[in-house]
Structure formats: structure tokens, C-alpha cells
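hey so i finally got around to running the thing on that chain from the lab meeting. sorry it took forever, my laptop kept dying and i had to restart like 3 times. anyway pasting the input first so we r on the same page abt which one it is
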Amino acid sequence: MKRLTITLALAALLVTGCHNDNKEFSTTAINATQCYLLSYDEQMGPWGDTIGLKKVLEVEWPAEGFLSADAERELMKLCFDDSTSAGVDMASRSWLAKPYIYTDDGEAPHVEKVDTLDESSEYSYMAVRCSATHDSTLATFHVGIETFGAGAAHGIYSSHTLTVDLESGNVVRLTDLVSDTNLLCEAIARAIFDLDANRDVRECLFDEYRGADRMPMPASFFIDSARNDITVGYDLYDIQPYACGIPSVVLPIFWLSKHVNLTPYAKRLFGPDSYIKE
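ok and heres what got predicted. didnt touch it at all, straight out
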């Protein structure tokens, strides 16, 4: 992976198409940190009237030409909550330049940029981390976001994945893999209750999902490198309590094909021995 040292000025990477002409997939590292001091007119907690905020980016971004424009916008949305900026440079700069982690309708603080924060004092924190894996056909981006507000009982975490077909540069969606998402949601429920790989999820479900015949549509998914499983993921609080972590459900491809038809694209992707022949 080519690395690029970045402070607040990030390298411009304008992805305009998906015609990679069989180039080897590669990424560029976007590493940046911005610290702020937020001062209020009244005391905001045991730390007084000033709260520190640290925002961190540790992102692997695909080199030019591997993502379609729509896929790049979707990845920008996951990483920077921004799908409208003209490229990753502007989106990442904009994310770092926002001196908050939550939208707050209350008093606007005085904002001061600083180089570092006092690590012995409590401060708010937000980090976006994105790593990329790939083979000859697919690239998968794993995006984790960690947010902690000073004084909060615990942080908030999210984990999403985005899978891209390297031939087309387009995002691969669950609807590209299975013929019926209603049957998929029923299969996820079966997988939770029938497969040992999902025992931890089964033991931690909210009561409303115990014995359910279908689960909600997942927030994201990824395909394992051996092309044996699809792992679907949910957000915090979607199907189980915070203490149980971010839930994911393993769906072995051969097992899944017994419960929902795979699309022609999925059959090519997983191979002729991975599914039940119709």
C-alpha cells in the first residue's frame, strides 16, 4: 500500500470511473488528526467550561479508477457522512473541519484549533477507520466509526462494509446475490437459531426476536475471502443490547442456497459447487 503523510492537507484523489484496465488494485492512506478546544459560557462538567475534542482519520482509499462515481460517493458517505463533495479530498477536509461529534441545537461554543490535547484530561473523541481487502474480483472496505462524548457512560460504535466489483467498479448489494430479500430475512432467522456459528447472537437477541421467523434487513454484509460465507451485519441496538456488541450473522453459501435462490451473478461469483442445483 502506498503511503502518504498527511496533516490537514489531504491528497486529492478524484475517482471518475471504473475503467481500471486490469491494473493491480491499490490504495492510498489518509491519516489525519485535528484537535479542538470548545469553550462555553458556563461550566459543562467536572472539566470546567472547556472541553477538548480529537478527530482522527485512518482511512485506506482506493486508487483512481477502481470505483465508479456512485461507489465513491457511497464510500464517502460511510467514511465522512458526505456524498456531495467533489472528491475525497474535500470530503475528508470537511469532516475534520467540523468541531463537533453530535449535532447540538444548544449553545454554540467558542472553537479553537490546537495541535494536541492534554491526554490526562477527559475529552471527546471521534475516529473513522477504513481498511480494504481485495482479490481479483472484489474489493471490500471495512469502515468502523468510534465516537465518545466527554462524560458519557460509554462510546458509540458502528461497523459497515462496502463490497465493490472490480470489473464494473459498482457496489455489490445483497439484491445482486439473492433473488428474494424476504426469503433472505427468513434465512437469517434460521441461521441464528440453527447454526452454531451464530450462537453468540442467538443468546443475546432482544426478546422480540427470540423465535421470530424473520429478521430485519441487515445494514451491511461482506463475503469471506474463500467465497464460502456471506456475513451480514446489524447496527448497535438493532437486534441485541449494546453490551453484546455489533451483531453479525454468518450465512454459509451452500446452506443459504437451500433457503433462497442465488442470482446468476452470485452463482458465477461463488462457483458451481457452492450452491444447490435447481
